[in-house]
Amino acid sequence: MFVWIGFIAVVIVFLALDLGVFNKNDHVIKSKEAGIWTALWVTVALAFSGVIYWLFSEGLIENPTGITPNTAVLKYVTGYLIELSLSIDNVFVIAVIFSSFQIPPLYQHRVLFWGILGAIIFRGLMILFGVALINKFEWIIYVFGVFLLITAFRMLKSDDHESDPKNSWLFKQLKKIIPITTERHGHDFFIKRMGVIAATPLFVALIVIELTDVLFALDSIPAILAITADPFIVFSSNILAILGLRSMYFLISRMLQKFRYINYSLVVILAFVGLKMLFSHQIELPEWVSLTVIAVSLTAGIVSSMLISDKNDEEPTD
């Protein structure tokens, strides 16, 4: 219990420093700044693998399956890379949401900050619920496996990034609950006009991002649960990846067109994890196999995006 309290306390300190010190004043996040923060978050997350090793070697955390410290580290790193790779798809959607609701770059970090804070709470609940299901009902892992395969197939066949959030069912339902205005007032989420409190586009974007993240968690959490059902490894790897999502967004959102084939990498990863769940009781794959599949898939998607020219970008010839 003390380990959980300590980890959550550290996360809260990170968030407080983020908004209260380093980003106290609204400003546009440049690529250089985003790159530095992304590198910092990745370093912190990978360095935390040392903490995982220490916790399991010293027996400071519950270990019902009796995994070794080295195995725990491999499972943590694999889970972190899965969540980090699936977060790339989330970046595409966030960019569409900001564009649809015309959120200026000056205020995007503030929206993402509160979005990440809510995501931590919701994902924590979903992880505990998912781990409890797997521990109580072993057959639920097959349900998760099929779900991931269906998700991979839908991702392969559809293009969700082109949809307009303003036409979504979610936005229409939100308009029925609270008054919404198209007027912005700095970084405020609400404004009061003629005695009526209305939500600004910043708050609407926040809610849409928040609930969209819940939908993404339905994919990413079962994917990590395919690697391990240890709640602390699942939670810590997931949260540390989410903490770096904001800086990752500002780093790669300006290069989205260059990563047009990364979607296929995510399809491969989801399909692999889904199959691993379905055959988990028949085939036990070493952790390095999962790491290799994830690394190769992401590398192939990035390299293909950089080397293969887009026909739409080619100038027509007379």
Architecture overview:
The protein has eleven helices and two strands; from the N terminus they run ααααααββααααα. The chain has a two-stranded antiparallel ribbon. α2 packs antiparallel against α9 (245-252), α3 crosses α10 and α4 (105-136) runs antiparallel to α8. The protein has one domain. It is globular and about 65 Å long. It has helices at residues 2-22, 31-57, 69-100, 105-136, 140-157, 169-177, 201-225, 231-243, 245-252, 262-278, 287-307; strands at residues 190-193, 196-199.
Defining key terms:
mainly alpha; two-stranded antiparallel sheet; 11 helices; disordered C terminus
List the helices and strands and how they pair.
Layout: H1 2-22, H2 31-57, H3 69-100, H4 105-136, H5 140-157, H6 169-177, E1 190-193, E2 196-199, H7 201-225, H8 231-243, H9 245-252, H10 262-278, H11 287-307
Antiparallel strand pairs: 1-2
Helix pairs in contact: 2-3, 2-8, 2-9, 3-7, 3-8, 3-9, 3-10, 3-11, 4-7, 4-8, 5-7, 5-10, 10-11
User: Terminal Cα separation, in Å?
Assistant: 70 Å
Please describe the biggest sheet, giving its number of strands, its sense, and whether it closes into a barrel.
2 strands, antiparallel
Order of helices and strands: HHHHHHEEHHHHH
* Strand element count: 2
Tell me the helix content: over 70%
Shape: globular
Structure summary:
This protein is an all-alpha fold. It is 70% helix and 3% strand. It has a two-stranded antiparallel ribbon with strand order 1-2.
